[in-house]
Design a protein that fits this description.
single chain; 10 strands; 247 residues; 22% strand; eight-stranded mixed sheet; two-stranded antiparallel sheet; 8 helices; alpha/beta
Length: 247
Amino acid sequence: MPKIELIQGDCLEVMKGIPDRSIDLVVTSPPYYLNKEYEKTISYEDYCLLMQKSFIEWNRILVGGGYAVVNFGDYFNSGNRFYKADVPACYPATINFFKWGVDVAGMDLQATRIWRKQFVRMGIPFVCNSHPRPVFDYEHIWSFRKKNGSSKEIVVDRKITQRGVIGESWTSVAGLKTHCASFPIELPTWAITVYSQDDATILDPFMGSGTTGIACKNINRNFIGIELNPEYFKIAEKRINEVQEFK
């Protein structure tokens, strides 16, 4: 029976209490800084500091050779938030995530993949009528690995490991009614299957509506979930508790 621990609070404060080298895998989708409701009270500088500190903590608490699988999207340069542009423009979040994970935390960028989203909601659809630009029908899934002095890795299932573009066959919806930035259950299930073994302990420090916890419970992984927002925490707690125990 997997052990499930759900904590409502600031992930940076909570992670301070997690022992070194005690987490096998981090699977998370941190705030994207896309001006969503829960991001409006934080400056870009504070957001970057949050992410830098998060990566440093992940590197500390992961076991040697453990992974952090991070889902994130590129930034829309609305209101010239990142640089002055003549047209609706973008800023690649990959610049920041490489810096935070590799340069700041000292991890290896083990793999980069694209999640081909089967559901897309364009917040400002009229932009595509006037400008030759796509909707964000993709997101990034990057896998960072904590250095341990070894080149050995475990391939659990080559068929699902070797694909660079994933999600095209995923059929479940993301659950946007419960959380404005949730992902489908197949995403954490894929990450947990590829990068962990039975009885591993998985951490999601930005738990949201709890989808990673549900995936862990479904496939017999221990789970620690942290969520700052009390409303989302209650949703996550309810959803995870409703899942039947792994048998």
